[in-house]
Amino acid sequence: MSAKSNTAALPQVAVCVDKARNYGRKVLQGIADYAETVGRWSLEVDSDATGSYSAGWLEHWQGDGILAYVESRATARRLRASRIPVVEVFGHHLDLHLPQVGNDDEAIGRLAAEHLLSCRFKHFAFCGYQREPWSERRRLGFDRTIARNGFSTARHDTPRRLATLAEGQRNREGLMTWLVALPKPVAIMACSDRQGARILDACRRLKLASPEQVAVIGVDNDEETCRLADPPLSSVRDDARTVGFEAARLLDAL
User: Are the C-beta atoms of residues 47 and 66 closer than 8 Å to each other?
Assistant: First the structure.
């Protein structure tokens, strides 16, 4: 059999994730694990995908399956209408009516709370992103665990994306005002490592000692982000590599 006919027989799979983030890199590693050990695929990888796609993105594509971040409900509708098997690997929205593999965000919040409770803190807070369902689920897991142990949780949310430097500065000033008002010592869960690094930067500007006055835990265990924070950021490690592997296995079944 010729090399050309071999290639033609392989399933054509589009992989659309954001490789710029630690989560996306790990998802790609999991997909590679599956493709190497279980079945060969012909992969078209878009490593810059952030979850939104143009209206004509799927037009004329003759593929067999898609592994993708999907943020937009309109995109989810187009994917469902295409009848191409799709597995969504972001899990930020759970109402897309697509097969999904992702993190258990409430469990992530619970793990962060259990760790901070074990450190004997009495004051707790959560810093999330505005209008992000996954951030809200992490907050719920955190809050409920803290409440079961007889404590309450303060809350502060910021935009996930900051369009300008001036917007970033205003966001930081609001965060600093909130931090100053919190009772000390306080333990804060950040919805992500990037948010955790912002909190630690604000603490350094305010000369609030961390972890003595403000202890912070993030999510994702993004090595570069955690190491560049001052002091280095503690983080809940999710398992995006397994997300990628299981998503590939689910797609294969579909």
Answer: no
Cα-Cα-Cα-Cα torsion 111, 115, 118, 120, nearest 10 degrees, comes to: -120
Tokens (6 digits) for 162: 């900051």
CB atoms within 10 A of CB 185: 18
**Helix residue ranges per DSSP H, the chain:** 3-9, 22-37, 73-82, 105-118, 133-148, 165-181, 193-206, 223-228, 240-253
Closest by CA position to 102, among listed 26, 33, 188, 21: 26
Query: Is 196 in a helix, a strand, or coil?
Result: helix
Q: Is the pTM of this model over 0.70?
A: yes
C-alpha distances out from residue 219 to 21, 65, 109, 160, 165, Å: 13, 30, 9, 14, 24
Q: pLDDT at residue 121 above 90?
A: yes
Whether the bond between 231 and the residue before it is cis, its omega within 30 degrees of 0, is: yes
Task: Give backbone dihedrals phi and psi of 159, rounded to 5 degrees, phi first.
Answer: -60, 145
| 201 pLDDT above the threshold of 80 | yes
| Cβ–Cβ under 8 Å, residues 139 and 192 | no
In the predicted structure, residue 53 carries a pLDDT above the cut 60: yes
Question: Is the bond leading into 211 cis (omega within 30 degrees of zero)?
Answer: yes
Give dist(CA 2, CA 17) in Å, integer.
Answer: 32
CB crowding 59-82: b at 16 or more within 10 Å, else e: eeeeeebbbbbbbeeebbebbeee
65 beta partners: 13
Average pLDDT, the chain: 91
